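Weekly modeling sync, notes
Attendees: S.R. (lead), two postdocs, one rotation student

Agenda item 3: backlog of single-chain predictions. S.R. asked that every request posted to the team notebook include the full sequence so nobody has to chase files. The rotation student volunteered to paste the first one in as an example of the format we agreed on. Action items at the bottom.

Example entry:
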Amino acid sequence: MHSAAVVRPGTVAEASGEDFDRHYRTNLLGPYLLTQALLATLRERQGQIVFINSSVGLTARGPVSQYAATKHGLKAIADSLREEVNRDGVRVLSVYPGRTASPTQEALHELEGRAYRPELLLQPEDVAFMILSALCLPRTAEVTDIQIRPMAKPV
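Predicted structure, as returned to the notebook:
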């Protein structure tokens, strides 16, 4: 399961190349290289690969261009990989959660000057439940993508 990520707000005009590189290395290159290193074992054991993406990986929003770019790239890697490994019995799942209660979200709210109200956000247990449900399906089925978002709209 690939879930490490970095997000640092910044517009295209203001974000530095170093910011973009950090996003790229953590959000895209890391999962790519780790998957590559484990691919033979995953094929041999007919494993499952989970990419924790972001709702921003489907629809770019706000001043997080470098984050959105890497998350769109992660979607492309997962979709391409799925085509490569399905014939070997390996399943690939991409999860696109909306804002989820976490220390990262708390820090983002602080940067945005907004009150952090975790009760209005997705709960980590909800995301975990969806992932486990997908992974526990019989091998005759594959969930390829899960989009999940909070019911309440944060203000």
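Discussion: group reviewed the output briefly. The radius of gyration is 16 Å.
Action items: rotation student to repeat for the remaining queue; S.R. to check formatting next week.
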